[in-house]
Amino acid sequence: MDSAHCSSMLQALFFLAFVWFFNYESVDGASSTVKMGNFSKVEDAVNFHIYYGQTFKVIKNAVDGQSYLLLQNNSRIASRTKYCTSRIKSFVIPLSNFSVDTDSFPVSFLEHLGLLESLKGITSDTVAAPCVLKLYKEGQIEKLNKSDYQMLTQFSAHFFSDTNQQPACNFATSVPFSEDTPLQRAEWIKFMGAFANVEARANQVYTTVKENYLCLAEIAKTRTSFKPTVAWMKYDDGVWSFTKEPYNLKYVEDAGGEILDASINKHTYNVSDPDDLEELHAILCTVEVVIDETLTYDPVNYTSSTFIQNLNVEDRSCFSFLTNTSLWRYDKRIQSSSLDWYNGAVSQPQLVLADLIEVLFPTGNYTMTYFRNLVKGETPINIGPEMCDRDTSSTMDPTIVPCG
Ligand SMILES: *[C@@H]1O[C@H](CO)[C@@H](O)[C@H](O)[C@H]1NC(C)=O
Ligand SMILES: *[C@@H]1O[C@H](CO)[C@@H](O)[C@H](O)[C@H]1NC(C)=O
Ligand SMILES: *[C@@H]1O[C@H](CO)[C@@H](O)[C@H](O)[C@H]1NC(C)=O
Ligand SMILES: *[C@@H]1O[C@H](CO)[C@@H](O)[C@H](O)[C@H]1NC(C)=O
Ligand SMILES: *[C@@H]1O[C@H](CO)[C@@H](O)[C@H](O)[C@H]1NC(C)=O
Ligand SMILES: *[C@@H]1O[C@H](CO)[C@@H](O)[C@H](O)[C@H]1NC(C)=O
Ligand SMILES: *[C@@H]1O[C@H](CO)[C@@H](O)[C@H](O)[C@H]1NC(C)=O
Ligand SMILES: *[C@@H]1O[C@H](CO)[C@@H](O)[C@H](O)[C@H]1NC(C)=O
What we know:
signal
């Protein structure tokens, strides 16, 4: 390590210590003398924290240990300070322009916050968001080559999710998918809000979403009827496996379902192995609902016969999820092979929960947002720019599901 680098590291560490000290001062003590702006408090998410000073904020990302020093553009500190070390980076806020890695950053956060007009670059044009597609088509958003780092440095910030790489000073890691529960993921809207000084809006959206989600979960909790057993499963290269992601299991629990027994779904099932197949067959006879998560580049062509073909079981007479038409995929809303499940569903988990409640306890009087029924032959909806039905500079409100 050369001495220049070393001293800049030291300087940065001193600065951070100062920031921490200052933070406690301003929040706990001198509130009468220090004017606090709007701020976000992280309640549920575990992988980021925000601290506030008078003219700056610090976001700490727990996954990669990075700290982002956000300096208000009208402060003296913003003109004097620039950090770009392996642990600390500075950004002048509010960001006037930025780009995102659309494979890992839900642009729906930007829509709720009303920030689409500052979004100038995306890494793929198959984004499942009508208004982003519209701005792209009009030339207001540019498509960037995600392996060309030089190209990704042209805006004030680039949001992506690779915690192992920090190729440039304007890269900020945003990792909602690192969280284990739906609400924790949705709260990452506050991470984005801090970069644009729209904390008030971020808080409002998250509170609305959370209240609606908890209300739906509360109703499901008081349900005394039979709890259907749900299997999330996927097929890959001749092998089926049951998903045990805490995130998926939390949804089932909150919707009032039963998760396929954890002691069963331990291993993978090779469909070419007769013993494996026999065991898979037996387990599936105990399941009421199947959610097929198999990855495909062609969701439109993924039908119940694809599932049956991959399953390779001849006698399906005991599969109540087939006779009872409860075989689902979460690719109802897509743009080509990109799923809105990884975009809009992240910021609005209350809609996913409402869908799942309908999957488990059908009323027949509900329109699914994210799930499609394979047995009933439902096909995905392909999202296009013409579906953008609002002013692109406006904020998008969360959809509230009637509850109670
Ligand atoms: C806080 O947010 C509200 C609503 O966006 C805004 O009217 C107000 O000026 C903000 N206050 C501060 C101190 O930034
Ligand atoms: C700071 O940002 C605000 C909002 O984007 C902008 O109106 C203002 O001109 C900026 N001020 C400076 C000094 O750059
Ligand atoms: C993207 O950038 C990489 C690295 O610079 C380059 O090798 C590749 O050809 C570029 N791809 C396209 C489609 O331009
Ligand atoms: C992005 O915003 C910064 C800060 O306002 C500005 O200096 C820069 O030119 C903008 N970049 C582009 C590509 O518009
Ligand atoms: C599945 O079993 C077949 C037959 O035993 C074997 O050839 C194949 O490699 C196995 N596949 C995997 C992914 O283990
Ligand atoms: C079939 O679904 C209905 C709800 O639509 C449920 O009441 C019933 O228990 C299910 N039957 C089986 C065998 O899973
Ligand atoms: C679906 O599959 C058929 C036959 O394999 C093919 O002709 C068609 O182009 C596919 N559809 C899409 C949307 O790729
Ligand atoms: C169907 O849903 C609508 C809107 O939630 C409600 O007004 C209506 O009463 C429901 N119909 C039945 C038969 O439950």
